[in-house]
Amino acid sequence: MTTERLPNGMRVHLVPFAGTDAVSLLVLVKVGSRHEDDAVWGGSHFIEHLMFKGTTKRPATVDISRELDRYGAEYNAYTGKDLTGYWVKIDAKRAATAIDLLSDMLLNSKFDAKEMAREKGVIIEEIKMYEENPIMHVEDLLEDAMFEGHILGKNIAGTAESMTAMKRADVLRYRDAYYAPDRMVVVMAGNVPKNAMALIKKSFGTAKKRKAGPESPLYARKVTKGPRVRLQTKPLQQIQVALGFETVGRGHADNEAIKLLASILGGTMSSRLFIEVRERRGLCYTVRAAVDSYDDVGTFVIRAGLDASRLKLAMDVIVKEVKKIAAHGVTKEELAMAKDHVRGGLMLRLEDSSERAEFFGRQSLFFNEVIGPEDRLKQFDAVTVADVARVAKQILDMKAMSIAAIGPYKNAKQLLAQFPTL
What we know:
Elements: E1 2-5, E2 11-16, E3 22-29, H1 43-50, H2 61-69, E4 74-79, E5 84-91, H3 95-108, H4 113-131, H5 134-146, H6 160-165, H7 168-178, E6 184-190, H8 196-203, E7 228-233, E8 238-247, H9 255-266, H10 272-279, E9 284-293, E10 298-307, H11 311-328, H12 332-349, H13 353-367, H14 373-381, H15 385-395, E11 402-407, H16 412-416
Parallel strand pairs: 2-6, 7-11
Antiparallel strand pairs: 1-2, 3-5, 3-6, 4-5, 8-10, 8-11, 9-10
Helix pairs in contact: 3-8, 9-12, 9-15, 10-11, 11-15, 12-14
């Protein structure tokens, strides 16, 4: 791997590897919805869309898409609560096209007023799509409960009202504050051409160094009596339910133990929850546990899609399993299997150039340094049974849990009646 920091502060990583004729170019920007103020709620996601709406060199959306479609490229972008990503995966012979086009989009997009007005309508429809899709929307509801009163709890895309009210001048102000070179990481992975660094310096290196906007306020945990609940009432036959527990931020030493705990509890088709809830009782189609982290806080989430008529029985089983692992921890065999699962999953993901770019890019963006896959796996290998037992006891506190559900319940009281005594 070759790493350089350009004079403007932008970090660049070239990650060549054999066995592929493709190359992936990823640009990560350390900005997301948690950096927004009320005037630009939904602005990070809006800017992501607008980067595809024309530049001075490529005036229209079709000029961008046609150039990539011509070569069969895959391309897209995404917005999170603390980062935004843009990527192109393309025939390595066309790497120069990807570099020129992505740099042009990120540095020279026009943000035309008419296009902005038109795209607001597109985003409002996207917001409706998520709100009307229970599988997608239940996690938004859960984080609204978990991070009540903090920007982390607000929807990444904003609302129809916030999008309608957003002014072009505020969007440009926000973009200029956070799309600063020292908040950006460029990664090229796969069959990287020899002149890649020179091409990146010639394009991305032209961005002017400037002072970036402020970081968002840190999250401070709120102690509440009983679970925080968010409910969307819908006459569904299958209820989407999510249980959330606060965990540590992404740089904490316990993160590996927490991720292994999630794998053992509900991360695979042989996990405790999958076996007990689906295989032995047939109470659901999906049930899983997963972990996500921000700089200052994380989430441990259990999700399930359940038959409305058997929700009470399913929640009895789920809560029993959560309490059991919190009280008694895990076995040596379970931990060894979870470590093997993490290793195998990482090795499979890193066969793909886009996944490899993400692996190194996110480390650089959030930690300002990178380690290789084997060093990352050593962090998991160092976790002990006692470590997993300790974090399980600390995190899986049913009285500090948040609950989100979408189903035929009129209020939180009716929903909580389906749960055992917490």
